[in-house]
Design a protein that fits this description.
About 10% of the residues lie in helices and about 40% in strands. The protein has about 300 residues and is mainly beta. The protein folds into two domains: about 65-175, Immunoglobulin-like; about 190-300, Immunoglobulin-like, CATH 2.60.40. The strands form four sheets. The protein has a five-stranded antiparallel beta sheet with strand order 4-3-6-7-8, with no helix packed on it. A five-stranded antiparallel beta sheet has the order 12-11-14-15-16, with no helix packed on it. The protein has a three-stranded antiparallel beta sheet with strand order 1-2-5, with no helix packed on it. A hairpin with a 4-residue loop joins strand 15 (about 285-290) and strand 16. The radius of gyration is 42 Å and the shape is globular. It starts with a helix and ends with a strand.
Length: about 300
């Protein structure tokens, strides 16, 4: 009996001790890839993104400033009559084409104005051909006072005229409407091919070019002129013919100065101008701008 009571007592003690044991911990559940992505997205939402400031465009007083189209003036030695001439060029450092450029100056020695202008097309990063007019008889650049600078810039189909006043240092900008008659050229430059042959230098060292053109159109050509740039000295020359050239004919020879280098590559055509006449007697003045590849056509009246 005593043994039985002892066994029962031990059983009760063991049962009591077993009831106080801590429950086993469940294994930690690993996050799935989807849950990780969702958590990252929640963190990103909490971070406030600072709004990015748009870079502010500097507002210019004119589409092209005078600093972008600087000019250079050289006063030449007096000629045999004592006249002093100014030789001028300008450089187009802008991103737009310049189609006209005009400097108005005051010659302080005689209180008279002079105008230095060119209507050549000058593309970005190009320097114009030489142009100019009378300078002060003193031959001093200090006797030139700049009054205004006027130029026309072309941006696609849009053109602007810019006038800068050197005294007030202010700009005036206005729309510029190029003349467009809406008339298509009845003869295109491809129908009037020309050739220029450079001759040997003469006794004075001058080189001349001899030119002809052929009329491959169906219309009569009554004058033909090429405005040519002599790149070796940055000067213009004009190869002109005023003879009547019928369809299928080649013109008589015409000539003008050539580059002193004697190289064809130092001849650059700027404009080709000609007059075409139909069988019905209608006459058209046609100008082709080589740089812009555009025509200007006028119907002429008798």
């Amino acid at each position: 009996m005593k043994k039985l009571l002892l066994i029962l007592g031990l059983s009760l003690i063991l049962t009591a001790c077993g009831g106080n044991e801590a429950p086993a911990k469940e294994p930690k559940k690993e996050e799935t890839e989807t849950e990780k992505v969702e958590k990252k997205a929640e963190v990103k939402k909490e971070v406030k993104e600072e709004p990015k400031e748009e870079p502010k465009e500097e507002k210019k007083e004119a589409p092209v400033l005078v600093e972008e189209v600087p000019f250079d003036i050289t006063l030449l030695e007096p000629d045999s009559a004592g006249n002093v001439y100014a030789e001028v060029t300008f450089t187009n450092n802008s991103n737009h084409i310049v189609t006209s450029y005009d400097i108005t100056v005051l010659k302080k020695d005689n209180n008279e104005k002079s105008y230095y202008n060119t209507f050549d097309t000058v593309r970005p990063n190009e320097t114009s051909a030489k142009f100019g007019s009378f300078g002060p008889s003193t031959g001093l650049v200090d006797d030139l006072e700049y009054l205004t600078l006027t130029y026309i810039i072309k941006r696609g189909d849009d053109s602007k005229q810019v006038v800068y006043d050197f005294k007030t240092k202010k700009y005036q900008v206005s729309d510029w409407y190029e003349m467009d008659t809406g008339i298509e050229p009845i003869v295109k430059v491809e129908e009037l091919p020309y050739t220029i042959t450079l001759e040997e230098p003469d006794s004075a060292g001058n080189v001349y070019g001899k030119g002809t053109f052929t009329n491959n159109s169906q219309h009569t050509i009554t004058n033909f002129s090429i405005v040519m740039l002599l790149k070796d000295k940055n000067e213009k020359t004009y190869y002109s013919n005023y003879d009547t050239v019928l369809p299928g004919e080649t013109s008589p020879n015409f000539s003008a100065f050539g580059p002193n280098t004697g190289l064809d590559t130092d001849l650059e055509p700027l404009e080709i101008e000609y007059t075409a006449e139909t069988k019905e007697g209608k006459r058209y003045s046609i100008t082709y701008n080589v740089k812009t590849e555009k025509y200007e056509v006028l119907e002429l009246t008798n």
